Amino acid sequence: MKYADVAENVRQLLVDMPSHDEFIYELLLAYGKPKASITRLKQGTYNQSNVPGEVLWKKEVWFKVVDGDLFATIEELKTAKGTKAHNPRFLFVTDFEQILAIDRKTDDTLDIKFPELETNFDFFLPWAGMEKTKLSNENPADIKAAEKMAKLFDAIKLDNPQYMREDAHAMNVFLGRLLFCLFAEDTGIFPENAVTNAVASHTDVDGSDLDAFFKRLFDLLDTVETKRGNIEEHLRCFPYVNGGLFREHFDIPTFSAKSRRMIIESGELNWSEINPDIFGSMFQAVIDPEERHNLGQHYTSVTNIMKVIEPLFLNDFKADLEKASNLTKGKKQALQRLLDRIAHVKIFDPACGSGNFLIIAYKELRKLEMDVFRELQAIEGTFPISGMNVNRFYGIEIADFACETAILALWLAEHQMNLEYKKIFGRTLVSLPLKEGANIVCGNATCTDWESVCPKNDGDEIYVLGNPPYLGSSVQNKSQKEDMAYVFSSIKNYKNLDYIACWFLKGAAYIKGSNTKFAFVSTNSICQGEQVALLWPYVFNKELEIGFAHQSFKWSNNAKGSAGVTCVIIGLRNEGNETTSIYRHGVVQNVKAINAYLTAGNNIIIRKRTKPLSAIPNISYGSKPVDGGNLILNENEKSSLISESPDSEKFIKKFVGSNEFIKGSTRWCLWIEDDDLSDAISIPSISARVERVKSMRLASKKAATRKISKRPHSFGEIRHKKSHSIIIPEVSSERRVYIPIGFLDDETVISNLAYSIPSANPLVFGIISSKMHMAWVRTVAGQLETRIRYSAGLCYNTFPIPKLTKDQIKNITMHVEEVLEEREKYSQKTMAQLYDPDKMPDGLREAHHNLDLAVDRIYRTKPFASDEERLEHLFKLYEEMTAKEKLV
Description:
The protein has 888 residues and is an alpha/beta fold. The protein contains 32 helices and 25 strands.
């Protein structure tokens, strides 16, 4: 069954509510269970229970209607013989006011009011054959913890509406402290299950005294043992924590029986399996219910974080360790130098969120340090002590709850690594009392002096990293636009830059001339189109270079529904003689230099041109109506107009833009030459349309629009030529290997939503339809969302084409004709269908391949192995041609 079908079935079931005896059978049918099976279940063939009104279907469900305590009943079912013998997937108890259920495969629980089944129907989707999907690198314990905490938050919020409105920060602090306690009781900081057992055994079932319990516990954790005085027996096991975590006093929410029960259930998880770096996404999902469907969406996976930190610094450290380990002389000294280097590292994330990047960087450096310790222990037999501390980790974050979480998560990461140390070396590093935590500042990174947060002292080796907010210019709010104005105060024409450009410019200023590097995740848009010229000259002018780059890839997260944004990773450093590396599809290539387009080559910037660099015809947008829709006709309007006035047909032309050309839809326009005006307006329908155009233009706030009201019969911007033209869609899907390009006759008007090359020949069609041109377009053009946005000034006018021989022109023309002939064989198909990479006809694909080879050969005789090779060649040719221009 489909997801939507199940949703509708359950909704309708609750509307038509069957009798209590029939409910479970109708519910199973709603999820698509076979009618024959349900009939046998009703007859008792499949029902393993003899209790009236109770259903136990092997491997499927144990359903029970209860008059009393639902919680006690489901606890009994957990350990019942029937559960062990028949292994039902779901335990389901209800009194038809509440529902309590357990998914025994995932350990998920459902605790809702009966009518809420409509919005929680997805809990039972396995009945319909739909399981919750997980990414291969996902830690199930992380997501389960996030879900548990989200449900707990909802329960506490329901119990404390006033508290939530007035003191959200206090709630953030409480949840952070609760997380610490749950983690501590499973990782040896506290005695095993100390908090969970205390809640279960020493608080009332209705939750009425739970707030007082937590207040007492938190106060004790902030008090050294010598100053505690007489305390309750069940609290004596808790040590002094300190470190600032429990220092400040905040009001604690009140609790109900349900929220108390959920805290106990949360304690039953094994928190030693939880990654501290998931806490950020946990909090995001807890605090923002809109994010619940994608728990972990804001959590960057370890795999992706490693793409940043490995080339930024970790690979270099590992190489040093390998060199030191292979020495026969001076090995101990080399290892000590490496330890000293690690101890002087600072990690700084100026958009740290909940600290994911900082946590993984900390863990990896601790692992590296322990690898060094192993080598030294083999030489000396001693037990070295870690010289690393989380107080050398720095961050800036604008959200209060995220700051709190980052500090907490780094504390927990430190304890985890201390446990790892114990496993390896057999000795425990002291975790308590906690030391002062990481230096996380709550503030706006764009307006904060970075050096005041992470000072650059002599001997420091600083690495700046992270995943700052992207935000294109059109979606920036007022505050973010003010941030842009502040950061780019000395630079003109910055307004079309993405918000993340602030971090690149500030990062460039921060690392200039120091023993510092940075690497940020970014959308690929800052390395495409006009943004390159707006940003990168100011970065390179600070004597910086790109040290490594991950070319465009889909950015995914440890989540059920990951973001899937197309991103790049860019590492910047001061100019030097180090190797530069490009990463693409998991393969690394060492190159001499990386340009702002993240390809091999010098730091050239492709700037918009008004005329072509090469010997090809001029290009322009098509004609723009500026008519309020009155000069444009759909198919029905065209037919009605001709039916009313047959003479009107000569004033109608086909009107084609990107959408019409690619998808095959049809629009028309009124095209009235000045000499034909009197005949045209003698037709009442046309005259009425022309008058509406005049009124619309006169009412405009733009002077230029009011000016053209004197000629309301014609388009506002006329570029149509009485010749065949090439049409290039302005926007095309990134999935296509080629942008669909075509010839249109002189009776077709190209709209301003596409480009037009009048009087163009097959040679131009062939060159701009080639992989050579597509490689250029994908690199230098901008994007609309993820789609390719063609630009006359950046793509066409800048494209370098060498001088051609007559034979080369003839050869390309021949292959263009083959492409057009193959298209004609499928004239019933749209361009979208023909150029769908999964459905492209073999003949058309072969014709394009032959055209590609012909175009490639005008650049060099040796075939290009990849688009990267094509681009490297094109950039060199561009440099040569623009240099010659300057000499003329």
